[in-house]
Write a structure and sequence with these properties.
The protein is of the alpha/beta class. The protein folds into two domains: about 210 residues, Vaccinia Virus protein VP39 (Rossmann fold), CATH 3.40.50.150; about 100 residues, no CATH class. A seven-stranded mixed sheet has the order 3-2-1-4-7-9-8, sandwiched between helices. It has a two-stranded antiparallel sheet with strand order 5-6. α7 packs antiparallel against α8 and α13 runs parallel beside α14. The structure holds S-adenosylmethionine. S-adenosylmethionine binds next to β2.
């Protein structure tokens, strides 16, 4: 019933920090994302071709992409429209020639005057980003919208634009880019070109195109005992993560703000932290949410199949409570693997949880459970 020592070594190794590379993995670094190596290794070892993998907190679609690349069926849920947006862009093949043609057209259009009837930034965004970059962002958004009727292509370039805004919003952008040439255009062109080159590696057609559903996982559209494997990472208690906002920091004017540009570009209302991270609620509401999600996992999982949960805690009490929820829904805990986290942003997006002042325990935990 429990894992043998080879398996424990194998999984512990999968959970070690390693920078993602290859395929469309680096399209966007969704906050608190898995490193691809972990879902890839688990899916390979514990499922077979054509089997159904489920991630109820799919985030940036890491598990969905890995399932696609090794021919598994996949279903993911998330309440954040941006998560579903990123997941779809990362897993939908578009002919790179068509993308390159579009990019060339954008480049030409950028040199022309453009009448804009939208503004995707608020006044504070503009103060932080500066007039030039702000008007370039609005222009790029306008060009993307005017020059393509195809929403799949538009979404591809909108993601490149969102990623570019994130890059120019970083603290060190001013230092890295010479003041007189500060512009988002080279970043957007470079990012788009890199994404187009990575698109080549996605399967053109797949029997197993992953499906991502926008909605809460408390009631999912899956039959009882229908899932072959679950890999997921739920929100962490008392930890609010910027799942839907871009941090913009301007050292020169000593300002930092969170931009709603993502929601504006997607045309959705921003969700509150209360909904995305289960924070701001009483502790009991966090546990109610967690309970409903875990219970649904149990319902859909086939007998004798694995569910993997990666989670971090602030207190031992919370760790004990999570473990007891898993046990109460009758998932058998085969193993709990402590995961040492990297403080190096380059190696692990997860380090966003574990700066020195976050109050998190020094390790996260990977719960390996089985429905018996
Ligand atoms: C830790 S992140 C998952 C990251 C993901 N493993 C990845 O690799 O990108 C947790 C996710 O849970 C989502 N979420 C929170 N409450 C939810 C709910 N009730 N149903 C579905 N998703 C939810 C958040 O929007 C967030 O994207």
């Amino acid at each position: 019933m429990n894992l043998n020592s080879d398996e424990i070594v194998y999984i512990t190794d999968l959970a070690k920090p390693e920078r993602d590379k290859g395929y469309t993995r680096t399209f966007y670094s969704y906050p608190a994302k898995f490193q691809a190596k972990l879902p890839r290794g688990l899916i390979k070892r514990y499922s077979s071709e054509g089997e159904l993998i489920f991630d109820p907190f799919v985030g940036g679609g890491t598990t969905g992409l890995e399932a696609l690349l090794i021919n598994r069926r996949f279903l993911g849920y998330d309440i954040n429209p941006f998560a579903i947006f990123v997941s779809n862009v990362k897993t939908t093949y578009i002919d790179p020639l068509i993308l390159n043609e579009n990019l060339k057209r954008f480049n030409l259009a950028f040199k022309e005057e453009l009448k804009l009837n939208h503004d995707i930034l608020d006044i504070d965004d503009k103060i932080c980003l500066g007039e030039k970059i702000s008007s370039e962002i609005n222009k790029l958004y306008g060009i993307i919208h005017q020059s393509s009727d195809n929403s799949v292509i538009r979404h591809f370039f909108e993601l490149a634009l969102i990623h570019s805004i994130k890059i120019v919003g970083r603290r060190d952008f001013e230092l890295r880019s010479r003041i007189e040439s500060q512009s988002i255009k080279p970043t957007f062109l470079r990012k788009s070109t890199k994404m187009i080159n990575e698109m080549i590696f996605l399967p053109k057609e797949s029997l197993y195109q992953p499906k991502f559903i926008l909605g809460s996982n408390h009631k999912v559209e899956l039959k009882d005992n229908s899932v072959d494997m679950i890999i997921t990472s739920p929100p962490y208690k008392d930890k609010d993560i910027e799942y839907q906002q871009i941090q913009i920091q301007r050292r020169s004017i000593n300002r930092s703000k969170r931009s709603h540009a993502i929601s504006t570009i997607l045309g959705v209302n921003p969700l509150s932290k209360k909904d995305l991270c289960w924070t701001g609620r009483s502790g009991e509401e966090y546990w109610n949410n967690s309970w409903k999600s875990l219970k649904e996992c149990y319902r859909v999982l086939k007998k004798n199949k694995f569910a993997f949960f990666w989670i971090g805690f602030k207190t031992l009490e919370d760790k004990t409570r999570f473990k007891s929820q898993i046990k109460t829904i009758k998932l058998h805990i085969c193993e709990t693997i402590p995961v040492t986290l990297s403080h190096d942003r380059a190696a692990s997006g997860r380090s966003t949880h574990h700066g020195k002042k976050t109050g998190m325990m020094s390790k996260d935990y990977l719960y390996i459970t089985k429905k018996t």
